[in-house]
Write a structure and sequence with these properties.
There is one protein chain. The chain has eleven helices and 18 strands. It is about 25% helix and about 15% strand. Strands 7-6-5-4-8-1-9-10-2-11 form a ten-stranded mixed beta sheet, with helices on both faces. Helix 2 packs across helix 7 and helix 6 runs parallel beside helix 7. It is an alpha/beta fold. It starts with a helix and ends in a 27-residue tail after the last helix. The protein is globular and about 60 Å long.
Length: about 575
């Protein structure tokens, strides 16, 4: 009996000690959960940053260069769609555009608010918030307005400061802005975190009101981001933070007369004004303020417990008087914004995490922004069983830690775009040297690269630059609408470096990106097995969406939205 009693006491002490150790280990693991920052630029091209190969390095990005030297550069990182709203949807929901709720820029019936994420969509911010993270979204949202189910505060963010409506966000000098779910006056210091110092406007800018304080939105976004970081840094071991900092730069201003507070080092350049503005958006504001974020993390001594991601929502634009070819913003890649060629979807990407990521590393691993969701979930030590079971993304943590990682089975995009048919010399092999029937319509505008489309009586299509004709993010209002053809486009990337594109009622075109990164030579006739695999991928990857049917591109533009989509 005494022996039994001794064993009983010993076992109880052992179990109590084990339980305490378990609590300690859980607390210890919680301390190690990192802060996460995603800096999501708007229309920043692959060639707009100095750290990418083939960049002309005309636009200076010293802070991004430092971030690259101290982190990992990805040379094959992709956005989820070549326009803004769906790219943000894929980023935050972990789904490619074959399954995503939002697959194009689209308005609801009021003509102002953007199509929102539905109530049933799950974002990475919701997952993080539910596991103890403090969350903030700052800047451009474009996934639903204040009264919609897709508003940031309904999608897992504790704090929002920015502009949820795409049509308004590119007015860079507004009088009001959204502070959580309220629209506030920017000059009200009791409601805005940072309205203390006036911006110093150049004296020759007469169309701006010099009495307005704090009305350059980019500056506000940076200062609010810094304030959020300072506020939550002391509690990071108990409640780490997630900051989604969606800068609207270097997207063109919605009002073409708007200048910047300063053109910085480019003021004396003999360039068109639109090009000075574009370069300064990147160097004077975007690059400089990324540096401020990184410096603040070091100052607060939380840099070794923070991952900072930087990406762009799509390729470079030719809008507002700016021409993407002026700085070779695509770095020679074919296409620009709204194109599923590489220049429209391959984007600058660097991840910074001192002490965790090998400094100065470069990776060719091909991934897309819908992989951000599961990557962050793994970094945050979130149990996979609590994640949505049908995510399209996969974690790239192994690659971040310089470990061997198997290539993704495929990357997939689908999109509806406008094409103006014209005839130029196509770089693709033609099925017939002299098509018996073709349609030629000349493009009126000259501000963006001229698309080359060969339309024959066999309905085959070839292109030699980007296929976009539209300078408006809502795909409306172009003089060429009456001449254009709407086409459903599918793009697939398959390891090791195969890239396929297919237009409606046409055959696949196939490129080997390792040997032909500029997509100039169609190899489809030489590799039928790759075409067969692509056809199988489409069957798996495409899931019907009532608002974005692949057999009716016009439906992508309509504003008739089922009432169930908008339920709170």
């Amino acid at each position: 009996f005494i022996l039994f009693y001794v064993v009983f006491i010993f076992l109880n002490l052992f179990l109590v000690n084990a339980k305490e150790n378990d609590k300690h280990n859980k607390h210890k693991n919680n301390k190690q959960r990192p802060n996460i920052i995603m800096i999501f630029a708007d229309d920043l091209g692959y060639g707009d940053v100095e750290f990418n190969e083939r960049s002309k390095k005309i636009i200076k990005t010293p802070e991004l260069n430092r971030m690259a030297r101290e982190g990992m550069v990805f040379t094959n990182a992709y956005t989820g769609q070549p326009v803004c709203s769906p790219a943000r949807c894929t980023l935050l929901t972990g789904r490619h555009t074959g399954t995503a709720q939002i697959r194009n820029n689209k308005k609801i019936a009021d003509g102002l608010n953007d199509l929102p994420l539905r109530k049933d969509s799950i974002t990475i911010s919701q997952i993080l918030k539910n596991t103890g993270y403090k969350t903030a979204a700052i800047g451009k949202w474009s996934l639903g307005g204040i009264d919609s189910p897709g508003y940031p505060l309904r999608k897992g963010f504790d704090f929002y400061y920015g502009e949820s409506i795409q049509e308004r966000v590119h007015n860079y000098f507004p009088k009001t802005i959204e502070f959580n779910s309220t629209r506030i006056n920017l000059n009200d210091p009791t409601k805005s975190l940072i309205c203390s110092q006036p911006l110093l406007f150049e004296p020759n800018i007469t169309h701006l009101d010099p009495t307005l304080n704090c009305n350059f939105t980019h500056t506000q976004y940076t200062l609010n981001a810094l304030e959020f970081i300072r506020t939550h840094a002391p509690q990071q071991h108990v409640n780490p933070f997630f900051l989604y900092l969606a800068y609207p730069l270097p997207h063109a201003a919605s009002k073409l007369t708007q200048l910047l507070p300063s053109n910085g080092i480019y003021e004396s350049k003999q360039w068109p004004l639109a090009e000075k503005i574009h370069a300064s958006m990147i160097t004077t504001y975007l690059d400089s303020d990324v540096g401020k974020i990184l410096n603040e993390l070091r100052k607060l001594k939380i840099h070794k417990n923070t991952y900072v991601f930087l990406m762009s929502d799509n390729g470079p634009h030719s809008e507002g008087g700016h021409n993407a070819s002026f700085f070779d913003s695509s770095a020679g890649l074919r296409g620009i914004k709204r194109s599923l060629f590489e220049g429209g979807i391959r984007v600058p990407s660097v991840v910074w995490a001192p002490g965790r990521i090998k400094p100065g590393s470069r990776s060719k691993f091909a991934w897309a922004n819908w992989d951000f969701f599961p990557t962050v979930a793994e970094l945050a030590q979130i149990n996979k069983s609590t994640l949505p079971p049908d995510l399209d993304g996969t974690s790239i943590v192994k690659t971040l830690l310089s470990k061997k990682q198997n290539a993704k089975e495929y990357l997939y995009w689908e999109y509806c775009t406008q094409i103006v048919p014209t005839i130029f010399n196509s770089p693709f092999p033609k099925k017939s040297k002299s098509p018996s029937k073709s349609l030629v319509i000349k493009k009126n505008k000259s501000t963006s690269p001229t698309p080359s489309i060969l339309l024959t009586n066999s309905n085959t299509i070839t292109t030699n630059t980007d296929e976009d004709i539209d300078d408006n993010d809502t795909n409306e209002g172009d003089d060429n609408d009456k001449f254009s053809i709407w086409q459903f486009v599918t793009a697939i990337r398959i390891p090791p470096a195969w890239k396929l594109i297919k237009y409606s009622n046409s055959s696949f075109i196939l490129f080997d990106l390792d040997k032909d990164p500029f997509e100039t030579t169609d190899l489809s006739s030489l590799h039928p097995q790759i075409i067969t695999k692509a056809q199988q991928i489409i069957l798996e990857a495409h899931h019907p969406n009532e608002l974005f049917p692949r057999d009716n591109c016009e439906q992508w533009r309509t504003t008739t939205i089922p009432s169930t989509w908008l339920e709170l």
